[in-house]
Amino acid sequence: MTNSGQIRFAMIGCGRMGRHHSQKIIADGRGEVVALFDANSSMAKGLRDDAWPAAIVSETLADLLSQDKVDAAIICTPTAEHCRQAKSCLERQWHVLCEKPLASNRTEILELISLAEACRARGQAFSLGYQRRYTSLFRTLRREVLSKRWGAVRAITSHNVENWQPTIGGTWRDEPAQNPGGFITDAGSHKIDLLFYVTGLKPVEVFARCQKWGSQVEIVSSVSALLSENVSLTMDFIGNAQYLGEDLHIHCEHADLMIRHEELWIAREGRRERLVADEPNSNPVSSLLDVILKGETDLSPPEAALPVYDMTQAILASGLGRKSGLESRREIVES
C-alpha cells in the first residue's frame, strides 16, 4: 500500500475488461495500477499510455509476479488461464479479483474455493467478478425475495438476448478450448449466477437444447430446469439477437417480482407497479477495496462459481444428448 493509503494493483489482461476495471479504479480513487501484463504486450503498453503512465509493463507473467510493490491483482484473461494465474497471485499474498468464469473445470474451481477459505482466514481477499451482485437493482430484488414477505418462490422465468455472435469472430470467445459453452459460459454466466444469488436456490435437474448457428461455440440455448425446493425454471439465451436485453421474473406465492428493461416491478392482485431499487450500488473493484480496507463481507466469493459451473455443464450435456438422440435430462449432483 502506498503512503497515501492507496491499494497498488497489478492488471493481468489489458483488453476490454482490463480497461473497464481501470476506469472503476480511477473513479473509486482508493487504488492505482502499478504493474501491467498481457500476452499481447502492445495491449499492456496501450493501457499504460492511456491510463497508468507510471506503471511497469511486464513481458511475462513471471516478471509481473516478481514485482514487490503490489497489493492486489485483477485477472482479465481467457478462462483457461484463470486458475494458474489466480493461484500464483494468491501465493504472492496478493488480494485477487478474478473475472468470471472462475476456471475451466470443476476440479480447478474446487481447488480455488479451498484456497479462498484459507485466504479469508488470513485476511486476504479473493473475489469473483459477477458484477450484477453489486448493483442496487439486483441487491434490492434479492432482499425482497429472501425476506419471504411475498411467500416462497414457485417458479422462475428468464429471457436473455444479446447481439453477441458478431463480436466473437477471430477471438478466444469463439474457441471451444478457451470458452467452452460459448454464450452461456461467457455473458450468460451472469444470468445463471443471478438465479442463485437472488433466490438462494440450487440447481437439481436440467433439460436443454443448444445451437451454434455457424460459430464454433454455443450461441443459442433453451433450458427447462428444476431447482431446489421444487422450483421450476424456464430460461433462454439468444446470443444472435438484435439488441441487448433481459427479463427476469420471480413468481412467488403472493406476488411476482420482475426485472424488465432494467426496472424493478411487483405484481399483486392483477396490478403491476414499480419498486424503488434502494439498496447500495457498487461494482467489483469498489467492493474488493471495501473488503480490503473496511473488512466488509465479499458479495461475490469464489464459492459462487460452483453452482453456475454445474448448471452450465448440465445445460451443455443435455444439449449434446438431444443432438445424439440420447436421454437428454441431466441431473446435477453436488460433491
From N to C, what is the helix and strand string?
EHEHEHEHEHEHEHHEEEEEEEHHE
- The level of helicity is 25-40%
Q: Uncertain runs with pLDDT below 50, 5 residues or more?
A: none
- How many helices? The count is 10
Measured between the Cα atoms of the first and last residue, the distance is 39 Å
Rounded to an integer, what's the Rg over CA atoms? 20 Å
How much of the sequence lies in strands comes to: 25-35%
Largest sheet: 9 strands, mixed
Q: What's the pLDDT, averaged over the residues? A: 93
* Strand arrangement across the biggest beta sheet: 14-13-12-11-7-10-9-8-15
Strand tally, please? Answer: 15
Judging from the principal axes of the Cα atoms, what is the shape?
globular
Question: Structural class per helix/strand content?
Answer: alpha/beta
Structural description of this entry:
- With 335 residues, this protein is an alpha/beta fold.
- Helix content is 34%, strand content 28%.
- The protein contains 10 helices and 15 strands.
- The strands form 2 sheets. The chain has a 9-stranded mixed β-sheet.
- Helix 1 (16-28) links the parallel strand 1 (7-12) and strand 2.
- Helix 4 (79-91) packs parallel to helix 5 and helix 8 (188-199) crosses helix 10.
- The relative contact order is 0.15.
Short note summarizing the structure:
This protein has 335 residues and is of the alpha/beta class. It has helices at residues 16-28, 41-51, 61-65, 79-91, 106-121, 136-146, 165-168, 188-199, 284-294, 305-323, and strands spanning 7-12, 31-37, 56-58, 72-75, 95-98, 126-128, 153-163, 203-211, 220-227, 231-238, 240-252, 256-260, 263-268, 271-274, 330-331.
